[in-house]
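HUMAN: Would you supply a protein with fold tokens?

ASSISTANT:
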Amino acid sequence: MAAGYETTSREAQIPIIAFGLSLSAFFAISYLICIALGLVVPDVRMHLPWLQFFPGFDWNASGMLLGLGESLVYGWYVAVVFGALFNFFAARRG
């Protein structure tokens, strides 16, 4: 292997806090883009997936804020579960 390309078990770890912040920001931005699209083009019937993936979602301010909070929670959930599993299996491999 070329110098500088060796991997250690430390390098194969996912930093869970940075991963959680990144995923939560990504999910929140995606959610807000979809909300904006739903407000601009209301007849596309995008509300059906929201009802399934965001319990309590409604097209009012409190429902949209609840959906935003849920998207942040989903980001942290994925980061904690996926990050912990990845770090576990990466440590076992090394």
Remarks:
- The CA atoms of residues 9 and 94 lie 6 Å apart.
